[in-house]
Amino acid sequence: MAASEAKPPAAARSQARERAVAYLTSRHRFRLAEVLPWVLALAAYFLLPDRMTFGGQVLIMVMFALSLDLILGYAGIVTLGHAAFFGIGAYTVGLLAARLNYSEPISGLIAAALVAGLIGFITGWFLLRYRGLTLLMLTLATAIMLQETGNLRSDISGGYDGLPGLTIAPLFGVFQYDLYGHVNYLYVLGVLAVIFFFVRRLVYSPFGQALTGIRENVRRMHAIGSPVHRRLVTVYTIAAAIAGVAGALFTQTNAYVTLTVFDFDVSAKVMVMLILGGTGRLYGAFAGAVVYMVLEDYFSKLSPTFWQFGIGLLLVLAVLFARRGLLGLIEDAGRYFARGKP
Amino acid sequence: MSVAALQVQGLNRAFGALPVTRDVDLTLEKGARRALIGPNGAGKTTLVNLITGALKPHSGRVLLDGEDITLTGQAERARRGLARTFQINQLFRGLPVLQNVGMAISERDGHGNNMWRPLGSSRVIMDEALDYLDALRLTDDALKLVRELPYGRQRLVEIAIALAQKPRVLLLDEPAAGVPSSETHLILDVVASLDPDIAILIIEHDMDVVFRFAKEITVLVQGAVFTQGTPEEIMANAAVRAVYLGEESHRGGRHG
Q1: Does residue B214 lie in a domain region?
Q2: How close A134 gets to chain B, by Cα (Å)?
Q3: Does this complex have an ipTM over 0.95?
């Protein structure tokens, strides 16, 4: 073996080795700071009881942004059509309830995940041969085509008037949804926790590492024998399924759905949230979605006509001063202050 | 007679109207130590890209261990034991050095489909990756991001990744280019200490490296094989000196 050739001082070498091994074996371990978002989410439940409907919407967007982080932040797939899967999930649950009178929530989520995942698999298999601008246009076109299909068959989809007044069966057959969204909030939070656990396992696994490799250097991945296309289609399918679950929760908690869920706005908004929070770092989705939604809510009350100015300003500031998102900013600040220490 | 590790037969490739590879035949026996030399623009890197599958030939065949891989994808060729280094670094710049090498091992052993087990829990992969880093004196840099390293040290990572693939055929595209001369010997030592069964093709401009390393030399000129032979034969070949070694011919005395 080649290693026997090297002769740096053995002690120093093994020390460096131990450090390297220690880093890698601890990288995926749960850190205390990771409790924070969940504690905050639970605290919000007790401290802001009259804002739970809004809170549920925020958590749904967190989940949607998290699904985008898998493909954009980790695998480096740039898409402007992620709303397609959110919309498919939303309509799976909506159509089941409106047309087939089937509204059991948990199985509805699973159905939404399967349908969105299937569409993700099929479109991904074709689209993920392309990258960059081409991919951007193709994903955008996919979402528009789905929206127009819904529009064409408005007898089924309800068109832009949507499927209003859906009745959703009680959760586990017991917990009826209340007007104030308390049950909804905990329901969405629970689903988010399950999905987050899965996503977290995934990004620290060898598969997740391979995705990062594809983002960092595709040519190198080909050269070391990685089946790049298969990896991309796999993660695209998973992300589509998660986006589908987020869409399904959207329909279940609002008890209505219209074709606007496929809007370009929705795809763009979720991307803005993720970039604002920080891509490829799991919790960027949390920070971005919460900050965006809260500010949007605040600005729109402040000035119902010009609220978008505030969001625009925020984005300009983020691009100028926080290129790696809010979490990147916090990280930089942490490093800056840590420098003072010995 | 045993099957050659790598065989290239009648390979042709053009970019538009410009033929860059013309009827190239090349054979690497098991354990070959062959250098590919030629003036700039001779089509050396294109040939490597054709062999690895990064480019498709317009005609001709590539055989790995006697099996036709002309239509096989790049990744599949890599999994079958064909590894390369790039003339210009192709690394995961935003990832630690250790992970760059670990990635190659993980893909080689087919762990890349695993979505559940944390990467860091595989001590075997980490230890193996660290062995390659040790050999190239990169252990101290194991946790640094690749982009934080000077270019010459990044070249060593490029080599470490290729070694980690445990190839049967290894194509080195100017491995020492950009490496400070104080560290070139590291690369050569490591390459020299590789399993003698591995067939190696090295593209190199540094004639000292070529003559130290290679047992056979192929000269490529304008996309075609100009001649091939032992280092002594190539050194003695007046035509080769005219097209390529011209400015270096004073060194011929060492061999003559």
Answers
A1: yes
A2: 21
A3: no
